[in-house]
Structures are given as C-alpha cells and as structure tokens.
Amino acid sequence: MSHTIGVRQAQKQKTRQxxxxxGLRLLAEQSLSSLGLREVTRVVGVAPAAFYRHFRDIPDLxxxxxxxxxxxxxxxxxxxxxxxxxxxxxxxxxxAVVEQYVRENPxxxxxxxxxxxxxxxxxxxxxxxxxARFAAEVAAGLREQxxxxxxxxxxxxxxxxxxxxxxxxxxxxxxxxxxxxxAAACDRIAERARRQLRLISLGRLHWxx
Amino acid sequence: MSHTIGVRQAQKQKTRQxxxxxGLRLLAEQSLSSLGLREVTRVVGVAPAAFYRHFRDIPDLxxxxxxxxxxxxxxxxxxxxxxxxxxxxxxxxxxAVVEQYVRENPxxxxxxxxxxxxxxxxxxxxxxxxxARFAAEVAAGLREQxxxxxxxxxxxxxxxxxxxxxxxxxxxxxxxxxxxxxAAACDRIAERARRQLRLISLGRLHWxx
DNA sequence: CGCGTCGGAGAACGGATGTTTACTGAATGG
DNA sequence: CCATTCAGTAAACATCCGTTCTCCGACGCG
Lengths: 209, 209
Prior knowledge:
Chain A is built from eight helices and no strands. By secondary structure, the first copy, chain A, is mostly helical. Chain A has a single domain (about 55-205), classed as Tetracycline Repressor, domain 2, CATH 1.10.357. The N and C termini of chain A lie far apart (about 55 Å). The first copy, chain A, binds a DNA duplex through helix 1 and helix 2. Chains A, B: It comes from Streptomyces ochraceiscleroticus.
C-alpha cells in the first residue's frame, strides 16, 4: 500500500465527512443560504467551534459539496459515452443510467439542481465551472461519433451543453416525482426524456444542410 | 368608471406591493428560505408586525411573488406564439423577445430560476403548476402549426415542455452573464439558444418517420 | 519516554430573529 | 356625526445565531 495515514488525520477526515453528510441531509429541505453552522454541528454531535477546523464558513462547505456531488456524476457521464450501438439503444441506456443515479444519489442531485441557481455566488460559480467541464467531456465524446463528422467544434459544444442541461433537468424532475412517491410520474418523465432525446437525435441527422 | 376603491384599501395594496418589491430586491442575493421577515419590513420602512396584515409568513409572500413574476411572463409567451412567418424568423424573434424580457425584468427571472428548485415546497409547487400551464399554452400554439399535423397530442406537449425548459434555462443563463457585465457572453448565449432551437426545429420536421 | 501539535469541548458575547400583545389614529359607513 | 373597523406602531418575549476565547487530552515524532 502507498502509505498508511495517521489515526489523527483519519479521525479529522471522518468528522469532516460527517459535516458534509449532515449538511447534505439538511439541504434536502432548505437551501444553502439558510443553512446554519450550528445546525450542522448539532446533527453531527460536535461543538459549533469544531466547524472552523474544517471549513471557513457555510459557503466553503457548499463548495466542498459541489466537488463531492459532481465527482460522482463523472462516473455517469463516462457510462453514457461508452455506449457503442445504435442511437435508440444509447438513448434508452442513457435514461436508464440517469434513473439509477437519481435513485442512488438523490441528495446530491437535489443539491446541484437547487444550488445551480441558488443564493450563494461561490457555489454557483463552482457548479457552473464543473458543468462546463462535463459539457466539454461530452463534446469530446460526441466528436468521435460519425454523425458529427461535418460539424464544427462550436456546434458540437452547443449540442453537448444542451445534453448536459437536459440531463440535469431530467434528473431533477425524476427526483421531484420520486419525492412525492409517485412512481408512475417517474416513468412518465423518463419516457418524455427519451422522446426528447430522440427528437434532438433526429435534428442531429439533418443538421448539415 | 367601474368603482373607485377607498383610500384605505388603496394604501394597503400600496404597502403590500412595497413588501413584494422589497422581497424581490433582497432575493437578488439570497434564496427565499433565508429571507427574513424583519429584513423585508426594514427595507420598506414599516414595523415587523405590519407584515402579518398582508402575508401569513415568508413562504406566503413567495407564492405571491410567483404569481406576479409568471403573470408578466404570460405576455412573452403570447408574443412568441403570435409569430406567423417561417421557422427561422420565429426563432430569431423568440430569442430577441427573451433577451428583452430578461433586460426589463431581471429580478423576476432570477426569482423563478432560483426558486424553481429552491428550498420552499409551496413555492416550488406554485412555479411548477404555473409552468405546466405555460407548457399547455405553448402546446396549443404548436398544434395550430402545419408541422404538427401528424403529431399525437402527447408528443406536442412533450415538445412544448422542452421549449419551456429551454426558455427558462436561456433566460437564466443570459441573466447570469448580464450580472457579470459581460455583454459579449450574453450574445454568445443568445446565439447558442438560436442554434439549439434550430436543431429542435429540424428534429420536428423529420419526427414522423 | 516526553514534548509539541492540534482536533475538539465548553462557555460566553452581542446581536438578530419570529411572534404576540396592547395601542393609536385615520378612513369608513349608517 | 359618531361608532366601528383596521393598517400600522411600539415594546417585550424567548430563541437562536456566528464567532471568539480558553482549555483539555490524545496523537505524532524524535
């Protein structure tokens, strides 16, 4: 193994993670700009002052949550881009992956959707920067598909950004429906997303006229 | 004239509107779930207790703001749907109208984009309901276009919802760029929106296969 | 082993919060 | 014209907040 870190640093990271988890949990029913420092420490079971050992303030915790949330989204993008077969299968698989991701990481999805346009500038910027990176990654994936041969790089990026926006929107919509316990609505939204992707896919085929 | 209302009721509506305006102004830099009652009354210049003469609590004020914000959006939708000529002109006009709307009502746009996924359930529901109404209206407009002749009602609604989502996203993106004072970025986003609409429009033409 | 480091505890602070209460005084309407 | 209604005031309430101290005790390293 590379290096066994000390008990000291391990315990620190443990409470740091506990603070992040508590914050994410509390953000299910409020937004970051109303999240209280004491509120978070109370859930974790540490003194308020302990917070400062890990974050400067609440916005700082928010930025850390962005990295955590969108780090796990990275896996999803890779999974979607890796698909090889026809357009129809790729669409089905894409939506299926999104559905699964929302089911397994509901809090992260909610956090990103909520704070993307939320009241904390630093967090908005962090999310925007990360989503831009994803869009670039998606664009690179699209570039390799034969359909994009005659496309300009700018147009490919435009398409990628639309996909990313659509992905976030769909994930958030599924989550909202799931919160209401309405499984039928989830399926409806997934089906709608599939048809919307199909429509975009059709546009792609005839773009070069 | 129909009926001149009393000085009493007029003065009341005046301060009510002042509370709404103050709330909207404060929401430029925070989200609704962190907006304080005293904060709002302080800006208006009335006693905190006076707030209760107009709203039950802050979420209640939020719901009122939704109605005010999306009431003005109604005009925009009408303006877009009224266009007659070719697809290209309609797209240009649509984006132009959105740009103008964002320039004239930045606070309303920010509020809707922010609270659409925000931390206050009642406000989220109100926005979702209102946007669903807009989507239905857009769908009705699309129905009348010859391009949609062979479409099912369900597919037309799916398309309309995509347009509404795209509209909100674009408006919010333009606003963010405008906040940074980056006029060039605004133009870039507008141009991107036009191309995205063109892509969707292309998909529409070949949907019935 | 012994000493420095440092994550966390605990208490204290000044200030801001939402809500309730009793009140004032001007518009209202018979 | 006079009794009533009611939008807004002023003060007091119990809490809660973020931040700053001092201090403790277990870990890290030589």
